Amino acid sequence: MTMDIKTYNMIAPEGLAVFPPAMYRINQTDKPDALLIRSQDMHKTHFGTSVLAIARAGAGVNNIPLVEASSNGTVVFNTPGSNANAVKELIVAMLVIATRPIFSSITWARKLNGADVSLQTEKGKNHFAGTELKGKTIGVIGLGAVGSRVARAAADMGMHVIGYDPYISVEHAWRLSNDIPRAGELAEVLRSSDYVTIHIPYTEKNKDLITAKELQQIKKGAILLNYSRWGIVNEDAVVAALDNGQIKQYVTDFSSSKFIKRDDVIVTPHIGGTTIEAEVCGAKMAAQTLRKYLETGNIVNSVNFPTVEMEFASALRLTLIHRNVPNMVGRITTILAQEEVNIDNMINRSRDQIAYTMIDVAAIPAEKLKNLQAALLAIPEVIRVRALQK
Ligand SMILES: NC(=O)c1ccc[n+]([C@@H]2O[C@H](COP(=O)([O-])OP(=O)(O)OC[C@H]3O[C@@H](n4cnc5c(N)ncnc54)[C@H](O)[C@@H]3O)[C@@H](O)[C@H]2O)c1
Ligand SMILES: O=C(O)CC[C@@H](O)C(=O)O
């Protein structure tokens, strides 16, 4: 088996090294079996039905058309938590940068000259008094991989933390210690926080989560941080809230022409996950997840398919992507029975409109396998059938 992988964006070489050259070709065809991407806008990038899977090295998947991918039978993966520490560390830095005049003091100190620089420094430093984070309240919206780490770090710096995440996973709830209270409503967080930091995915539901109404509820003079995505915070509403003094500063990873040259907006160029460690971790995780799927059919860390794992112990594995409708298992196994193929092991899982079935069987002659695959694909609700040799 030789498979083709196509990459978009800069993928760390450590990730590409996960693909053995004897089995995989990288960027050698326009009809790849799988894609390995970062922020490439796949809504605007054509990917054909040859693409079995797309792995996103990173957390956000709003750059991938998930509904279209599911209906093509394309499994989409991300790398949960791979860059969460990088974002957390940047948030800690941005909280301090927003709170103390670090850049202006450095710029001033650089301009000094003469033999008495140290004296001038001591004299001038009073212009650069900041405040401390300790004792202030921070609202953390979204308590997943990033938000739960930010909440912990803020608490460790002596901040009062209020979390808000109505959909928190059991795993992340466990990670969050009991000393971090959780609010039942967004307004509660906005009302009482000196800093509000947002760590949620961009989805239709989260579009414009923070707009004029929410910015009216926010504590006067608060600092708002958005290291999640464009579109979650309404830019016009932010500009208005800065102009009328409702918020003191907006700190974001997502640039806009509306923010250029504003002293009360700090923009970083989407570098939340841009550390060597996070890029290596994300690329390796994405590549390993792709290999697992391509070679065994097992699915982990998918954002549009169920998690499905079964030990690959037989000579042949059939994987079927199909619509999630009643009696599919019955129809599939009937065809196997008609073809006189005995099932060694089988698993079926579903997620929303899509379902996935893996069936392990003993070796089958090539012609018989071809007929079996054709018969399975002829079931109208079946989208894709693969046969994997162990
Ligand atoms: N700036 C960057 O470079 C960078 C890096 C990593 C992640 N991100 C962004 O941050 C997002 C979060 O990353 P993560 O790794 O923590 O993801 P995650 O999936 O681990 O956590 C997201 C959390 O947000 C919660 N949530 C969803 N909608 C919510 C809402 N309306 N209110 C409150 N909580 C809500 C979910 O329940 C989940 O717990 C990503 O989707 C991505 O868009 C940006
Ligand atoms: O690939 C990147 O650098 C961005 C990553 C980040 O936005 C994410 O969603 O994980």
Automatic annotation (TrEMBL):
InterPro entries, sorted: ACT-like_dom_sf, ACT_dom, D-isomer_2_OHA_DH_cat_dom, D-isomer_DH_CS1, D-isomer_DH_NAD-bd, NAD(P)-bd_dom_sf
Pfam family, one: 2-Hacid_dh_C
Domain ACT span(s) in chain numbering: 317-390
Chain segments annotated as coiled-coil in the UniProt record: none
Alphabetically ordered keywords of this record: NAD, Oxidoreductase
Species: Liquorilactobacillus satsumensis DSM 16230 = JCM 12392
Enzyme class (EC, first level): oxidoreductase
Name of the molecule in the record: D-3-phosphoglycerate dehydrogenase
A GO MF label: phosphoglycerate dehydrogenase activity
Pathway(s) the chain acts in: Amino-acid biosynthesis; L-serine biosynthesis; L-serine from 3-phospho-D-glycerate: step 1/3
Task performed by this protein: Catalyzes the reversible oxidation of 3-phospho-D-glycerate to 3-phosphonooxypyruvate, the first step of the phosphorylated L-serine biosynthesis pathway. Also catalyzes the reversible oxidation of 2-hydroxyglutarate to 2-oxoglutarate.
Family: Belongs to the D-isomer specific 2-hydroxyacid dehydrogenase family.
Catalytic activity: (R)-2-hydroxyglutarate + NAD(+) = 2-oxoglutarate + NADH + H(+); (2R)-3-phosphoglycerate + NAD(+) = 3-phosphooxypyruvate + NADH + H(+)
Tagged with keyword Oxidoreductase: yes
EC number: 1.1.1.399, 1.1.1.95
SUPFAM superfamilies: ACT-like, Formate/glycerate dehydrogenase catalytic domain-like, NAD(P)-binding Rossmann-fold domains
